[in-house]
Amino acid sequence: MSTTAGLARDHDAVVDAQDIVSRNSALPLHAQIATHFRQLILAGMLPNGYRIPPEGDLARQFEVARGTVRTAMATLLAEGLIERAQGIGTFVSVRARLPQDDSSTARLLSTGERLIERGIEFQNTLLERRLVDEHRSLEAFSAHRVMHIRRLRTLFDGPASVTDTLINLDLVPEAAQLTDDSLAAGSLHATLRYSFGVEFTWAERFFSAELAPAEVAQLLGVARGTPVLCHEEFSYTHEHDCIEYSRSWVRTDQHKYAVTVRDSRG
Fold first, then answer.
1. Burial of 70: CB neighbours in 10 Å, binned 0-12, 13-18, 19+
2. CA distance to 22, 177, 215, per residue, from 75 (Å)
3. Using CA atoms, how far apart are residues 243 and 142, in angstroms rounded to an integer?
4. pTM
5. Of 45, 192, 171, nearest in space to 112 by CA
6. 235: exposed, middle or buried (C-beta count within 10 Å: 0-12, 13-18, 19+)?
7. Residue 68 neighbours by CB distance under 10 Å
8. Nearest to residue 26, comparing CAs of 160, 123, 161?
9. Chain segment 195-225, per-residue pLDDT in tens
10. Cα–Cα dist 37/81, whole Å
């Protein structure tokens, strides 16, 4: 499936539907459409301020229901890649491009943002969301109001990870109003960053090997007790407040983690 076919010279000719949408893909149609636009935007092939065609036009070009296009656009909106002007239209956000500097100090990207940047197709499924009045079981993460969400991430060849996330509503109370579609969007970090101006400035990441608990194993499609990679992350703001905590169980046959190390003297 091509990811760059049919680049528009005007807003009425964005796509060649036969090259973009595959009904044989494991990814839903709306996820394929969102992936196509995401890659064009992040590659700079749809510039900041570019007007996205109306949903009806896209539905005809892709030969899908209008609701499918609406879901794809909602995902991109939640990721901060597009923005809507009431009565005018939908445009590529002026904040959409990720920074090009690849140094570890210049970029604090979540796993979802890394996948988006590399053009890797994935889908998130929201399994659970609930509000918790108080959470103090983690030393670094303490809040009076917390939103807990659980998501399943699927890559092109099947389930890849299960992630539990705690969002500190004391620091970003507006997050409690996020829709289920927004919470299931490509990157939760991007949603918090672009929707509420959250600035993630540093994070602590911990990796360990664990045996998959029964519920996690079932979601990942592996046998109970299968070794999985456990990834914990505490994300902080400028004020050193922990705004988000996440714990992911990752299938080791689906992910490889690579770290680039530079000598600060060079």
1. middle
2. 19, 16, 27
3. 9
4. 0.63
5. 192
6. buried
7. 21
8. 123
9. 788 888 888 989 999 999 999 999 999 999 9
10. 9
